[in-house]
């Protein structure tokens, strides 16, 4: 076992040349910040129009983001001639699932264009249907087309496919395929460079976006990207609240769900540039999880989370073998049948109802996912399509394996479902329609001229289908805008001010590390902005951030370019945390669908609060607004 | 290579197989790995506690680029070690 030598991370041992503050200027037509699923699609959309594209990616384009390793599903899309639920039915159903707090037009577009984006992937060599009839008798397979479905096999709107590529083949999968295509089309990619700010015309907050600045996390050098149009696809926010178990202090790791490099960099940049964010108050640790900390290795997800799902078409049973009368498998499906969680699934006891059954002794935990009744072919399909593409590409981590990894034998073994007993373990941006982020229109345009966004950074375009569709659309819109505009001027003062800000942590030789600061942020958010909150608590949270800004922030230090990246990320988290506190103060009502509970305004969803809370910065000050929720007209 | 004991290095590189091509360093999305200053030697696991792939059980993230893109993965050059608390417990059906 190689010993980890911490000395390697010391400045004297840093393997790359350190080039703090050295600037490189790059000019492009369209700048894409973030090379995940949405960013990959955006880059192809622009490149295909013959414009110059530059992608700036914190990690490695093709591998970064929540879908970097692949995916096994493409939900809520309409396949002409195959799907039963139409795009408007899907949009309405998703909206209903979020009790009307929804961006129905966005869902509609996502459902309408989703299949086209999958066809794009197919053209790049990604397998999206069982053409060889390998799973010919599977109940999940459409006999005409060979397409496999998940969640809802009746309506055929959620495609199951091979997004990670064939196992054992390096550089496989959908995002890598798009990276190769982008390179073929001449897209310029800057890996290991993280964007830190958007540049605006004359340096004015609220002005046209004319590019961005960035830093290389290996060399620490500075980049000035000049662009006619900018697309931002940097994902959602993590690292804002404490989780159960996986903190640095416990020795391991840092997050449960999603990439821990997704820390809302884009939201911070957009906020500082003066664009509008919305629904940020519904970003919070969910009282229930999307997935248990171990369960989703095989795709078992929160029984008590109505937004969760199980990709295994199996029954969940309690320790006595009694089937759980589970909730509807995938809330946003239209007319879902109780297939995935077995008999009685339409009874769907969610959350409290399941706990009640346990307290009454009607359900005796632990609970298990029982696949033993499935045919060998269905189990093979689950392993080869679902697990190999999303869940554990190489091996599955199990407690009884010799070295902790092996494949679960679904014909004999049942997998323990852990969610119901893990309190307070959740995620930070809520799934589907009720998360916060950058406001965009259905073409991916933000409230600022020259700035477009897509993917998990925006509400209404999340998930694989949303990221694919809105990545593509935002790229297209940015290209159209860039084609008819001139190369902008960069404001030197704005660049210099950003340089002074981001290199601050390199000026000190000792002080507060980013981890200490990040733990402080988690402490404040967990204490003052958790499931239950009131005005006093939220104001204490803001006061606490003022304290750390005055003390810890000024002592923040980084001893190499990697730590500088983390430090700059962590500074951004404070901005986002404050925005969440401000937005939470503004919503003077509680809402089940938003997962938002004010102790001082306990009434759930009063009609006057069925609206969005928006937030932006004007002349350096936070401005809160509200906007009506637009419902889609019948198509 | 024994992997049965608890390690605090989530990514374990076998120095006898690894040729030091640094592909894993290139694709790691979290900057966990650094190239070895000695050419041809295995990369250094510099930031083990920032390894998102292992600490999310490789499952919630469904990604471990260092292993996925290692040209010698099949020969055992690299292994992503999932800590016990993130592994899955199973039970044989009676």
Beta-strand content of chain A:
5-15%
Strand order of the largest sheet of chain B: 1-4
The coarse overall form of chain B would be elongated
Helical content of chain A (DSSP H or I, runs of 4+): 25-40%
Poorly predicted sequence stretches spanning 5 or more consecutive residues of chain A: 1-9, 244-256, 286-312, 327-350, 419-434
Report low-confidence residues of chain B grouped into runs of 5 or more. 1-7, 56-62
Topology:
The complex is a heterodimer of chains A (635) and B (94).
Chain A (H helix, E strand, L loop, with lengths): L22 E11 L3 H11 L5 E4 L16 E2 L12 H11 L6 H20 L24 E2 L9 E2 L13 H11 L3 E3 L2 E8 L8 E8 L5 E11 L32 H9 L3 E2 L36 E3 L34 H8 L7 E4 L5 H14 L6 E2 L7 E2 L6 E5 L19 E2 L12 E3 L9 H21 L8 H11 L1 H4 L6 H15 L3 E2 L1 H16 L10 H26 L10 E2 L12 E8 L2 E8 L7
Parallel strand pairs in A: 1-2, 1-9, 2-6, 9-17, 18-19
Antiparallel strand pairs in A: 3-5, 4-5, 7-8, 8-9, 10-16, 10-20, 11-12, 12-15, 13-14, 20-21
Chain B lengths: L10 E3 L9 H5 L5 E2 L9 E2 L6 H4 L9 H4 L9 E3 L9 E3 L2
Antiparallel strand pairs in B: 1-4, 2-3
């Amino acid at each position: 076992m190689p010993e980890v030598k911490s000395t390697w991370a010391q400045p004297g041992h840093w393997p790359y040349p350190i080039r703090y503050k050295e600037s490189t200027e790059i000019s492009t037509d369209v700048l894409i910040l973030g090379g995940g699923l949405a960013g990959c699609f955006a880059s192809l959309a622009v490149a295909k129009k013959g414009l110059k594209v530059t992608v700036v990616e914190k990690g490695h384009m093709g591998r970064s983001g929540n879908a970097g390793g692949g995916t096994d599903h493409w939900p809520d899309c309409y396949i002409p001639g195959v799907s039963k639920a139409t795009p408007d039915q899907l949009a309405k159903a998703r909206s209903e699932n979020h009790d009307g707090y929804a961006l129905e037009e966005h869902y509609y577009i996502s459902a309408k264009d989703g299949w086209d984006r999958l066809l794009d992937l197919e053209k790049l060599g990604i397998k999206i249907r069982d053409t060889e009839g390998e799973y010919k008798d599977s109940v999940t397979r459409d006999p005409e087309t060979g397409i496999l479905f998940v969640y809802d096999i009746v309506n055929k709107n959620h495609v199951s496919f091979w997004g990670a590529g064939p196992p054992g083949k390096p550089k496989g999968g959908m995002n890598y395929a798009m990276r190769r295509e982008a390179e073929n089309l001449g897209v310029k990619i800057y890996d290991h460079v993280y964007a830190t700010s958007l540049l605006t015309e004359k340096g004015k907050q609220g002005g046209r976006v004319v590019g961005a600045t960035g830093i290389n996390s290996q060399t620490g050098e500075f980049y000035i990207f000049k662009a006619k149009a900018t697309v931002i696809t940097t994902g959602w926010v993590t690292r804002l609240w404490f989780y159960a178990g996986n903190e640095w202090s416990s020795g391991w790791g840092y997050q449960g769900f999603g990439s821990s490099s997704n820390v809302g960099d884009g939201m911070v940049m957009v906020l500082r540039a003066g664009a509008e964010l919305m629904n940020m108050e519904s970003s919070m640790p969910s009282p229930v999880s999307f997935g248990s900390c171990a369960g989703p290795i095989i795709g078992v997800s929160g029984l008590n989370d109505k937004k969760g799902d199980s990709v295994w078409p199996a029954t969940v049973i309690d320790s006595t073998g009694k089937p759980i009368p589970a909730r509807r498998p995938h809330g946003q499906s239209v007319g879902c049948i109780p297939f995935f969680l077995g008999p009685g699934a339409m009874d769907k006891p969610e959350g409290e109802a399941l706990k009640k059954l346990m307290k009454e002794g009607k359900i005796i935990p632990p609970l298990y996912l029982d696949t033993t009744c499935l045919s060998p072919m269905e189990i093979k399909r689950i392993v080869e399509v679902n697990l190999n593409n999303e869940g554990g590409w190489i091996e599955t981590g199990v407690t009884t394996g010799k070295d902790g990894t092996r494949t679960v034998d679904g014909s004999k073994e049942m997998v323990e479902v852990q969610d119901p007993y893990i309190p307070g373990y959740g995620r930070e941006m809520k799934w589907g329609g009720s998360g916060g982020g950058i406001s965009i229109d259905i073409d991916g345009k933000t409230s600022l001229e020259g700035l477009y966004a897509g993917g998990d950074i925006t509400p209404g375009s999340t998930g694989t289908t949303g990221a694919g569709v809105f990545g593509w659309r935002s790229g297209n819109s940015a290209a159209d805008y860039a084609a008819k505009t001139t190369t902008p001027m960069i404001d030197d003062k704005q660049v210099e001010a950003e340089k002074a800000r981001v290199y601050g942590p390199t000026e000190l030789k000792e002080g507060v590390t980013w981890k200490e600061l990040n733990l402080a942020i988690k402490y404040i958010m967990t204490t003052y902005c958790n499931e239950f909150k009131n005005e006093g608590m939220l104001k204490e949270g803001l006061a606490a951030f003022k304290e750390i800004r005055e003390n810890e922030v000024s002592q923040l230090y980084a001893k190499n370019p990697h730590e500088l990246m983390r430090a700059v990320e962590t500074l951004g988290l404070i901005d986002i945390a404050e925005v969440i506190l401000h937005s939470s103060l503004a919503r003077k009502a509680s809402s089940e669908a938003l997962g938002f509970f004010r102790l001082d305004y306990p009434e759930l969803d009063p009609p006057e609060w069925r609206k969005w809370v928006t937030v932006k910065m004007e002349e350096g000050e936070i401005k809160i607004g509200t906007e009506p929720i637009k419902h889609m007209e019948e198509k | 290579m024994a992997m049965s004991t608890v390690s605090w290095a989530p990514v374990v590189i076998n120095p006898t197989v690894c040729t030091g091509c640094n592909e894993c360093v290139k694709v790691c999305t979290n900057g966990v790995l650094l190239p070895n200053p000695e050419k041809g030697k295995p990369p250094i696991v510099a930031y083990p506690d920032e390894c998102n792939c292992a600490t999310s059980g490789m499952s919630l993230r469904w990604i471990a680029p260092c292993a996925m893109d290692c040209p010698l993965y099949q020969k055992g050059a690299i292994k992503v070690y999932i800590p016990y608390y993130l592994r899955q417990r199973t039970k044989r059906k009676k």
